[in-house]
């Protein structure tokens, strides 16, 4: 077997040692090919047919959101009941015990949500006073009547099942007075109701405990169906899942129920009424979950994009191979050949002329090398030489490759496979938008009414002093402000509207204006931020009134809910009072659209609210409006909650296909710009500079030292040019 001569083997080894293993034209070209192949494969796989034979993911996600709203509403309502009783007990704390009947009478005038309320002596279980229905005191005495006082204060809410099958929540608070070692207990029982979500004939709501037992229900009876039991167990099992920041404070999810008659199925959502880590919530420890279900009609329509994805992926595959071949032929191969020729001249092998090159920059460098070869043989350096012309420049070639790839990506990113404004939106999503908006309105209404009840309870305490001790009244106001983050200030007005005592920020009650009657009032209709306050008259207070001004951030937090789009709280004149944080708002501005004003007008005539699918020439959206219903201190406000969500945000198959198409185009643009930009910076610009240096050396510049900036093909040619320069700089240009 013949072997190569020893000198040939050494030359090959030295040649391999001089050539770079990394850097140069090969990595960006290889990366471009790999990325384009990956994008082509992803395009063919991701743009598949979207089957709608079952329920759309958007409908299932909507049910999960409805359940989350219900869970938050339930938890907030139960927490408010607990804190109301505890704060009321704290207000009746003093050096001398307040008679039990007096306490219950005052609380009965303010709070009407408790079914029964009582004061007991835990020492012997004596019932000191009671109002309303009978309370199962045996549970209270068994749980907290025999321990230390600290244990009594730590008593949380308890769920009790009555013989009638109804569930009651018992709340216990300590009534301390003077030096009592064993305080009396204030006990209240409330009904465990389903959240304030409208059900109708098509929706069911369940409240279950940690064992999956149904505690409350509304809507069609589904508690005994197999899927209801399965969801109850799933919700109970998921209750202790790790909280995800930014999401629902507790476990939540959705699943499909069993098929009904015809083409209907049951979409189910569930959410735990849990508390987030570090959050104070007495009701969050009860282990309650809310389950919502709705029957939906199947849609056998499917979004066909598989052929589109295969064609787009195939075209990109061909373009990737074409662009890679062009770059290898016009950039990588000429660079390697220039390296070989320059290395030969640098070693003094001048017997063969330098080959001719295609491409403008390689042709210029090749012509300069040929001139240098002749100069090394004794010819005189030319004073000026014209630039060699070899066709397209390398920069123009890279730009053409980029344009070719962008011609594939840009239509996907901007034009093709658009969903348009005529997408079929399930009616259930339109109805869910109304229900969730109605829940948000109910949540705001209850929060404002609860705030008024707190102010009314403070008025009871202020009235007990007869207005003779301003320092005591100020202490009560400061305690209320500290324990109620919903207020920015709490103060007492006289009959003429003059501030007598205050705690917190400067009052914004109109100067010289008499206090409003017991209600929640809107104090302004213009300005930088809205002013809303709860007014409660002091019993036998000679015109005095306690006022609690709501913090605008509190109103914003009430209408902020994920997955509902943009939400606005508007007054009777459709001026914006609050809006969700992500979008922001300008106080007292108008709604951004005439269709929203029309919707608010229609909703005011219908206590159940209204929802529409609004379509324009370019897009469509789900919009809903829900007025305050149910009376209370806010009955004269005339406020509404309005929401609007673009349908493009929904997880419908048409929009999913559109987003995937845009993603494929974006990935194609990113791959082309990144790799071709990399190639231009690392190879093309240094190659153009190399052509200028080589021509300068060929025209007689022997003083400029040439040194490589990178260890790649261009850098290797520069090193060889430096060897040629040193050879020519010697006397007579010879060894």
Description:
The protein is an alpha+beta fold and 735 residues long. The protein is built from 16 helices and 22 strands. A hairpin with a 5-residue loop joins strand 4 and strand 5 (167-175).
What's this, in brief?
This protein has 735 residues and is of the alpha+beta class. The protein has helices at residues 6-18, 26-46, 57-91, 100-110, 137-144, 149-153, 226-237, 306-346, 360-376, 394-414, 427-464, 470-483, 552-559, 594-605, 653-698, 713-729, and strands at 50-51, 116-121, 126-132, 158-161, 167-175, 184-191, 203-208, 214-218, 252-259, 264-272, 289-297, 302-303, 487-493, 499-504, 519-522, 532-537, 545-550, 566-570, 576-579, 610-615, 620-627, 640-646.
Range of helix content: 40-55%
- First-residue to last-residue Cα separation: 39 Å
Beta content: 15-25%
Report the strand count: 22
Shape: elongated
Total helices: the number is 16
Assembly state: single chain
Main beta sheet: strand number and arrangement?
Answer: 5 strands, antiparallel
pLDDT below 50 for ≥5 consecutive residues: which ranges?
A: 12-17, 145-154
Structural class: alpha+beta
Q: Which descriptors apply to this entry?
A:
about 725 residues; alpha+beta; 16 helices; elongated
């Amino acid at each position: 077997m013949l072997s190569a001569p020893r000198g040939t083997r050494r030359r090959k080894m030295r040649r391999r040692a001089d050539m770079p293993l990394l850097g140069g034209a090969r990595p960006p070209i290889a990366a471009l090919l790999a990325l384009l192949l990956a994008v082509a494969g992803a395009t063919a796989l991701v743009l598949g047919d979207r089957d709608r034979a079952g329920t759309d993911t958007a409908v299932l996600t909507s049910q999960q959101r409805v359940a989350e709203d219900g869970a938050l509403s339930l938890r907030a309502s139960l927490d408010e009941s607990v804190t109301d009783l505890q704060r009321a007990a704290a207000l009746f704390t003093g050096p001398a015990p307040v008679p039990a009947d007096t306490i219950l009478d005052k609380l009965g005038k303010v709070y009407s949500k408790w079914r029964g309320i009582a004061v007991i002596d835990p020492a012997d279980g004596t019932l000191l006073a009671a109002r309303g229905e009978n309370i199962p005191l045996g549970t209270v005495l068994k749980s907290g009547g025999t321990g230390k006082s600290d244990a009594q204060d730590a008593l949380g809410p308890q769920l009790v099942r009555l013989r009638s099958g109804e569930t009651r929540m018992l709340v216990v608070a300590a009534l301390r007075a003077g030096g009592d070692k064993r305080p009396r207990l204030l006990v209240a029982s409330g009904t465990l109701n389903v959240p304030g979500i409208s059900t109708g004939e098509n929706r069911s709501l369940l409240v279950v405990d940690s064992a999956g037992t149904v505690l409350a229900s509304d809507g069609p009876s589904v508690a005994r169906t197999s899927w209801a039991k399965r969801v109850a167990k799933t919700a109970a099992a998921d209750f202790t899942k790790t909280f995800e920041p930014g999401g629902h404070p507790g476990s939540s999810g959705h699943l499909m129920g069993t098929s009904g008659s015809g083409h209907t199925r049951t979409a189910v959502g569930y959410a735990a009424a849990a508390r987030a880590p570090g959050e104070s919530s007495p009701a969050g420890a009860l282990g309650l979950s809310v389950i919502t279900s709705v029957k939906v009609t199947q849609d056998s329509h499917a979004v066909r994009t598989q052929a589109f994805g295969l064609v787009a992926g195939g075209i990109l595959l061909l373009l990737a191979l074409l662009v890679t071949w062009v770059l290898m032929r016009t950039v990588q191969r000429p660079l390697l050949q220039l390296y070989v020729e320059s290395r030969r001249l640098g070693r003094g092998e001048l017997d063969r002329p330098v080959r001719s090159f295609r491409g403008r920059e390689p042709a210029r460098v090749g012509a300069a090398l040929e001139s240098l070869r002749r100069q090394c043989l004794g010819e005189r350096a030319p004073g000026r030489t014209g630039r060699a012309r070899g066709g397209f420049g390398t920069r123009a070639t890279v730009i053409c490759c980029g344009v070719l790839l962008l011609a594939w990506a840009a239509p996907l990113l901007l034009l093709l496979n658009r969903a348009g404004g005529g997408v079929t939106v399930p009616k259930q999503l339109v109805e869910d938008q109304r229900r969730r908006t109605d829940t948000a309105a109910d949540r705001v209404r209850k929060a404002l009414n609860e705030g008024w009840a707190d102010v009314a309870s403070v008025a009871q305490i202020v009235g007990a002093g007869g207005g003779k001790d301003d320092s005591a009244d100020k202490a009560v106001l400061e305690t209320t402000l500290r324990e109620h983050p919903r207020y920015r200030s709490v103060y007492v007005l006289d009959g003429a509207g003059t501030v007598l005592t205050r705690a917190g920020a400067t009052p914004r009650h109109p100067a010289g204006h008499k206090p409003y009657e017991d209600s929640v009032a809107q104090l302004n209709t213009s300005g930088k931020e809205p002013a809303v306050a709860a007014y409660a008259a002091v019993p036998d207070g000679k015109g005095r009134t306690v006022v609690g001004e709501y913090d605008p951030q509190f109103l914003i937090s009430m209408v902020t809910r994920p997955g509902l789009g943009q939400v606005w709280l508007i007054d009777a004149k459709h001026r914006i009072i609050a809006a969700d944080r992500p979008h922001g708002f300008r106080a007292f501005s108008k709604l951004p659209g005439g269709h929203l004003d029309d919707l608010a007008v229609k909703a005011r005539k219908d206590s159940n609210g209204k929802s529409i699918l609004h379509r324009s020439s370019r897009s469509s959206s789900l919009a809903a409006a829900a007025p305050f219903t149910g009376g209370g201190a806010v009955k004269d406000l005339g406020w509404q909650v309005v929401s609007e969500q673009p349908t493009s945000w929904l997880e419908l198959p048409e929009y999913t296909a559109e987003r995937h198409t845009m993603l494929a185009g974006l990935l194609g643009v990113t791959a082309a710009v990144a790799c071709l930009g990399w190639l231009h910076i690392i190879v093309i610009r240094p190659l153009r500079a190399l052509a200028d240096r080589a021509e300068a050396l060929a025209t007689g510049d022997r003083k400029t030292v040439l040194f490589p900036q990178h260890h790649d093909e261009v850098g290797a040619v520069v090193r060889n040019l430096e060897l040629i320069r040193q050879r020519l700089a010697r006397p007579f240009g010879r060894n």
